[in-house]
Write a structure and sequence with these properties.
The complex is a heterodimer.
Chain A (H helix, E strand, L loop, with lengths): L3 E3 L3 E4 L5 E7 L5 E8 L3 E8 L6 E2 L6 E7 L2 E6 L8 E8 L8 E2 L3 E5 L1
Parallel strand pairs in A: 2-11
Antiparallel strand pairs in A: 1-3, 3-8, 4-5, 4-9, 5-6, 7-8, 9-10, 9-11
Chain B lengths: L2 E5 L2 E5 L4 E8 L3 E9 L6 E6 L5 E4 L2 E5 L3 E6 L8 E9 L9 E2 L3 E6 L1
Parallel strand pairs in B: 2-11
Antiparallel strand pairs in B: 1-3, 3-8, 4-5, 4-9, 6-7, 7-8, 9-10, 9-11
Classes of the chains: A mainly beta, B mainly beta.
């Protein structure tokens, strides 16, 4: 079974704090993704990575950065958290080739106060 | 820009009452349409991938079909444990972030005993 784990299920941070969200997958997948999910807006892609040390912006990268130092680990960084970054954050991974289905972690619900 | 529209937003059925969920999409070149199930507070769980018009996939009480403009998720004789939000996503040649998926906002399905 594919397993994607995320470092925290719930996180509460203060405005201006630096926040790290960690994601680890155990299926040797090349591609990893970070999404955020908000009511009424659905899932939106923040960043993705197709290889170690490689990263690409998704649809809403502003206010975020990422790091991929090892193939199995992909980190999302909020340099200075703001209240509008309160959301559910979901990590996913997939192989580079077919099949292309992405496998998701359990999510981190981040609240910025 | 890829677009995915799911309908209805919410659906309440009696146990055993069959129905269909719709996913309409606009993409420049479809490279896969995906169905996911999401339970409250959890990450999406992969259900099906469809690649070309006319393709069908089945799993227990669920059957997914694909045309050139839309996909349907048919639920036959549903049970209360089928209650969840069902998400549709597309992967295209021009989709957000290369290999990223574009998601619809989901259909919230409730099956009443």
């Amino acid at each position: 079974d594919v397993k994607v784990t995320q470092s925290s299920r719930y996180l509460v941070k203060r405005t201006g704090e630096k926040v790290f969200l960690e994601c680890v997958q155990d299926m040797d997948h090349e591609n990893m993704f970070w999404y955020r999910q908000d009511p009424g807006l659905g899932l939106r892609l923040i960043y993705f990575s197709y290889d170690v040390k490689m990263k690409e912006k998704g649809d809403i990268p502003e206010g975020y950065s990422v790091s991929r130092e090892k193939k199995e680990r992909f980190s999302l960084i909020l340099e200075s958290a703001s209240t509008n970054q309160t959301s559910m954050y979901l990590c996913a991974s997939t192989n580079r080739g077919p099949p292309y289905e992405q496998y998701f972690g359990p999510g981190t619900r981040l609240t910025v106060t | 820009e890829d677009q995915v529209t799911q309908s209805p937003e919410a659906l309440r059925l009696q146990e055993g009452e069959s129905s269909s969920l719709n996913c309409s999409y606009t993409v420049s070149g479809l490279r896969g349409l995906f169905w996911y199930r999401q339970d409250p507070g959890k990450g999406p769980e992969f259900l099906f991938t469809l690649y070309s018009a006319g393709e069908e996939k089945e799993k227990e009480r669920l059957k997914a079909t694909l045309t050139k403009k839309e996909s349907f998720l048919h639920i036959t004789a549903p049970k209360p444990e089928d209650s969840a939000t069902y998400l549709c996503a597309v992967r295209s040649y021009s989709g957000g972030g290369a290999d990223g998926l574009t998601f619809g906002k989901g259909t919230h399905l409730i099956i009443q005993p």
